[in-house]
Design brief:
Layout (H helix, E strand, L loop, with lengths): L6 E5 L4 H12 L3 E6 L2 H13 L4 E5 L5 H15 L4 E4 L14 H29 L2 E6 L2 H5 L5 H21 L4 E8 L5 H4 L3 H10 L8 H12 L10 E4 L6
Parallel strand pairs: 1-2, 1-4, 2-3, 4-5, 5-6, 6-7
Organism: Anaerovirgula multivorans
Pfam families: adh_short_C2
Protein name: 3-oxoacyl-[acyl-carrier-protein] reductase
């Protein structure tokens, strides 16, 4: 098991890619602490993880609340003694074309997707620096690299995550911390599954593989980057997109 006895915190892990990542990490031997803002979904996910034999903690915590994330970090350390991996997965969308986008929708996406990543990373990086080791992984997107119609706010945050990833890799490497990002393409999350069939078919046609990704595909990328197999990889962005941007 590639993550045996590692301690991981995954934000936004009650469903979708975050949940798939938690399942993958548990199956790879990690102890996993998951956070989200919906306690019912959290409890359901925890039940699944424990059924797999995983050691799991869960917290209803908002990535915008520094005090809540600090409490998560302190509690995980008190129970498990360390934090090896942070996966910044929590994120939202509020799509609209530039000329129609409200300031409120711009600000809230920037807050969660960009400042939330900054807040969680700053808190957990201090813990990892004291340990002399750690891995920080963040969710970017192909949208952050290439842009996308109607997603000014989302694209800005995902490009910002790449910039922060590369900056933190330079700053934190000497402290034994690796920092990378994953850039998913069209992934068949519960939200995407609700889209009309014609939209899903359009997404499939854009990929040379003529398929949509699964949350597990992204989880596999996170597991690789978190493992010792990626010990010499930092400051990179791993695209998991089925070639959709080729």
């Amino acid at each position: 098991m590639r993550l045996k006895d590692k301690v991981a915190i995954i934000t936004g892990a009650a469903q979708g890619i975050g949940k798939a990542t938690a399942i993958k990490f548990v199956n790879e031997g990690a102890k996993v602490a998951i956070t989200d803002i919906g306690v019912d979904n959290l409890k359901s996910t925890v039940a699944e993880l424990k059924a797999l034999g995983g050691e799991v903690l869960f917290y209803e915590a908002n990535v915008l609340r520094r005090d809540e994330i600090q409490t998560v970090a302190e509690d995980v350390i008190s129970k498990w003694g360390k934090i090896d991996i942070l996966v910044n997965n929590a994120g939202i969308t509020a799509d609209s074309q530039l000329l129609k986008m409200s300031e409120e929708n711009f600000d809230k996406v920037i807050a969660v997707n960009l400042k939330g990543v900054y807040t969680c990373t700053q808190i957990l990086a201090k813990v990892m620096a004291e340990q002399g080791s750690g891995v920080i992984l963040s969710a970017s997107s192909v949208v952050g690299i290439y842009g996308n119609f109607g997603q000014t706010n989302y694209a800005a945050t995902k490009w910002g995550v790449i910039g922060m990833t590369k900056t933190w890799a330079k700053e934190l490497g000497k402290k034994g911390i690796r920092v990378n990002a994953v850039a998913p393409g069209f992934i068949l999350t519960p939200m995407v599954q609700k889209m009309p069939d014609k939209v899903l078919d359009m997404m499939r046609d854009k990929s040379p593989l003529k398929d949509l990704g699964l949350p597990e595909d992204v989880a596999n990328a996170y597991a690789f980057l978190a493992s010792e197999e990626a010990r010499f990889i930092t400051g990179t962005v791993l695209s998991v997109d089925g070639g959709v941007v080729l």
